[in-house]
Amino acid sequence: MNTTTFRRLLTSIALVAFTASPTLAGEMTWAELKPTVYGERQIASDDAVVKLETPYRASDDRQVPISVQAKLPGGASVKAVTIIIDENPMPVSLKIEPAQKRSDLWVSANMRFDGPSPVRAVVEADDGKLYMSEAYVKTLGLGACASPPVTSMEEAIATLGNMTLTPAPAPLAVTSLAAQHHRARLDIRHPNLTGLQMDQITLQYILPRYVEKIELVQGAQALARVEAGISLAENPSIAFDYIANGAAELTVTAKDTDDTVFTHKLPLNPGS
């Protein structure tokens, strides 16, 4: 999709959401989104299988923490966890696919919110079943997908693709798996430009450029694959859990929409 088509698509979606009431807009958006993403497949609403944690109201629309803990019953394995923000221009916001068979998975990320919106965490099991939990996040009205970048373009280019890996605290009230799983937070320096932001000096729209794929490899063992869009916040921060395999480092390969690839080997903290 070229830049012009991309902008027209985002503008059309935004106008539909803007002209409807908040409740009706949410209902219409999910009614249209669900068949686009999952077709006619049934999705079970189950807060026992999918625990979604969001703030009641965002303190900063540009950096809203969203956490998901999935625990599948009956020995099924997690195929994918997807975070959907209904009213964002690109609603399918983050998808993580574990490389190993796991009945449980935790992921957390800082997301942009273009306005108040329902949020959904959808867990797909390897037997084809889908489970969902949903919440509603109120926002400050910043229109974060169009908010100018906080980082200057000069600094963004100078630090583009830099990464750090640090231990992550357990953010959920229910963390029965914390004792057996390690948690880490990956921070990537990248402006994650949406294509809806305006340069405050030239008053021209800044071309979209955002991280769209991330691959995680623990030692020589594939750990997970992540897909993202413009909802992922500037300087993306993604936390995840993993089972240590004795490897001393994590290899992270990220690719953005300009086809720039960033690869770093980051030391794993056994206490993370």
Strand order of the largest sheet: 1-8-7-4-5-12-11-14-15
Number of helices: 3
Percentage of residues assigned to helices? 10-25%
In CATH, what is the class?
Mainly Beta
Q: Unreliable runs, pLDDT <50, ≥5 residues?
A: 6-23, 171-179
Question: How many E strands?
Answer: 15
Which CATH architecture is right?
Sandwich
| CATH H-level homologous superfamily name | SoxY domain
Concise overview:
The protein is an alpha+beta fold and 272 residues long. It has helices at residues 3-19, 22-38, 153-159; strands at residues 43-45, 50-53, 64-71, 78-85, 92-98, 104-111, 117-125, 130-137, 163-167, 182-188, 211-218, 221-228, 237-242, 249-256, 261-267.
Model description:
The protein has 272 residues and is of the alpha+beta class. The protein has a single domain, classed as SoxY domain (Immunoglobulin-like, Sandwich), CATH 2.60.40. Helices cover 15% and strands 38% of the residues. It has helices at residues 3-19, 22-38, 153-159; strands at 43-45, 50-53, 64-71, 78-85, 92-98, 104-111, 117-125, 130-137, 163-167, 182-188, 211-218, 221-228, 237-242, 249-256, 261-267. Strand 14 (249-256) and strand 15 form a beta hairpin. The longest helix has 17 residues, at 3-19. It is globular, with a radius of gyration of 18 Å. Residues 6-23 and 171-179 have low confidence and may be disordered.
